[in-house]
Amino acid sequence: MLKLILSLILPITIGILIYKFGINFSTTGIQKTSDITLSISGMIFTIMGVWIAFIYPNAILRLKSNKLEPADFTENQEEKERLGRIVGAIVQSSLVAIAILVANLASAVIENPHQHTATPAIAAIIISAAILQVEGIMQVIRSNIDFLSDLHSKSSRKKTEQQL
């Protein structure tokens, strides 16, 4: 609930600050930021879709058996390394997306905003969407790192148990 309230307050606060301080954003820069934010949303949906597609077949197999057990990726070292590379690529791409988003937002202020100026309300909505998008990216990064960390922990525990 708190997150929803903050999501509603954020654009209003940003709009007031933009208006109060007389910050101007070029319409072209705001449009670029909007386009990038939308592209990043697509990226996040794709990443999460891939994870669901990867986990879903294993989940179906587990549901068909008499015992419900979580999928185990700790057995196969090659698969574990592949997952590590996938997670690394996701984190790297996510950080690049954040950098591009921030750079485009900054350029919206820098590149001659007095020529064609976006209204504070539009700028506030786009900036808020960009901030929320960065939060979404950070959640994807955190989820992937947690997944990999859990995988390595389980693998280490399993290896220790086998040695005993």
The strand count comes to 0
Helicity, in percent? over 70%
Overall spatial form: elongated
How many domains, in number, for the residues?
Answer: 1
Give a quick account of the main beta sheet: strands, pairing sense, barrel closure.
Answer: none
Strand content: under 5%
Q: Nearest-angstrom radius of gyration?
A: 21 Å
Mean pLDDT: 77
SS summary, helix count = 4
Structural class of the helix and strand makeup? mainly alpha
Q: What's the N-to-C terminus distance? A: 48 Å
Low-confidence stretches: none
Order of helices and strands: HHHH
Give a summary of the structure in a few sentences:
By secondary structure, this protein is mainly α. Helix content is 83%, strand content 0%. The chain has helices at residues 2-21, 27-64, 77-110, 120-163.
